[in-house]
What we know:
Blueprint: H1 4-56, H2 62-71, E1 74-80, E2 85-88, H3 99-106, E3 111-112, E4 135-141, E5 144-152, H4 154-157, H5 159-202, H6 217-264, H7 271-302, E6 311-314, H8 315-332, E7 336-340, E8 345-348, H9 350-366, E9 373-381, E10 384-391, H10 398-403, H11 414-417, H12 425-435, E11 439-445, E12 449-457
Parallel strand pairs: 7-9
Antiparallel strand pairs: 1-2, 1-5, 3-4, 4-5, 6-8, 9-10, 10-12, 11-12
The structure holds adenosine-5'-diphosphate.
Amino acid sequence: MRTLYVKFIVITTGMMLISFILAFLISNTYYHKKIKPYNDEKNTKVALNIATFANEHPDSNLGAYLENISDVGYQLYLVDTLGYEHYFGEPFRNNSLPASTKERVLYGHIFHGILHYPRETFVTGFFANELRNTIGVPLEHNGKNYALFIRPDIKFLFKEMHVLFGWILLLAISLSIVMVLINTRYLIKPISTLTKATKCLANGNYNVELDSKRDDELGQLSQSFLQMARKLEQMEEMRKEFISNISHDIQSPLSNIKGYTNLLDHESISKEDRTQYVSIINSEIRRLSSLTKQLLLLASLDRNEDVMKKKWFNVSEQIKGLIRKHQWAISEKGLTLSYSLPDIEIMGDPSLLETVWDNLISNGIKYNVPDGSIEISIEQRGNSVFVTFVDTGLGMSKAEVERIFERFYRADTSRTRSVEGTGLGLSIVASIVKIHNGVITVKSTEKEGSTFIIELPVK
Ligand code: ADP
């Protein structure tokens, strides 16, 4: 059984066959239990009526009378005390009947051959055209004793009907097989289409078309498949963009380093130039190093590895430490820093959260204006801690705010471009806040400043 189509047809036809056999067995049992005794009783009545009529009309022609009875659909057998036999109607397929049975009927007993006809599993006695399968009654006519055996002539009764029934059965079976074939094709078709679509997808063609309008399980499957294809396409796009961004961000410091080392090779360069070139090379190396560190961190956050090493720690102390670290840069830019940092402990990964605060403080410094200000506060409300960073810096447009958490995104203004950065900082911040089940909100107005609020659960 290779295909689902063949499997389905074989299983359905098998089931049809089994139900047919079961139905036959059940109806056969029903015949033996219910219909057979009823048939026996009915035919005994008919036989007794015939015998009574013959008895009450001694002058009538018994042969002609019985011939008439056979014409309405009975098979009859008449035997007298001397053993003379007469058959009326269609001949029996089997004429054997024990002599003792005939004798018992001649002596006045009733023979219930239909009721006692041997039970056979696959042949309902109804159709057995045998002398044994009859009702025998004693018959007295014109002073003579007879034994009359009678059974309905099934062939006669069903002459036209059995052909019709045969055709109906044949037609029902053929039609159901044809329907199974068509229906199976209809059922299997979307699965074959899905298989083709999967192959297309595997070959990198995301433009697959499926019938997703069906409102059954297959329709849902097609819809989910299309969603998956769209998601994969987006991810592929992101992957390509990511690689091109990384290549660009690695390539540009490398070519700068190459350019400046070539310049350093010239013996004629002045001491000041040499110091400046070495400083540029150092800064490019720092940029490369920070880029690789950020990429490594992002990769481990992406892999959903168990990067978190949670413990209780004092967030305020941590932020104060970072302020000390950035103090020099803050004073150099002439910024005013104010803070409100009451002692608050939370459960989280101290090293990852330090990266978050570090990024937000350095962005507050980098994208600030001379003599601007930075305000940092921390506050506990219920089960959440709110850490807020407000700066009076360059600010961002609405469109820029929407994209700042994208990897490698840097607002494309001459002022921000002049500042060192990779465009990865805030995407790392967002990932860390997310794995801490926190929320980050940004409010910003161009040329006025920005506010970043991080809400973290205390536990
Ligand atoms: P990077 O600072 O390395 O460029 P980030 O992911 O930290 O990368 O920031 C992305 C962009 O968002 C920055 O390039 C900048 O344009 C904008 N940005 C971030 N923080 C601020 C801020 N405090 N004020 C104005 N712009 C900001």
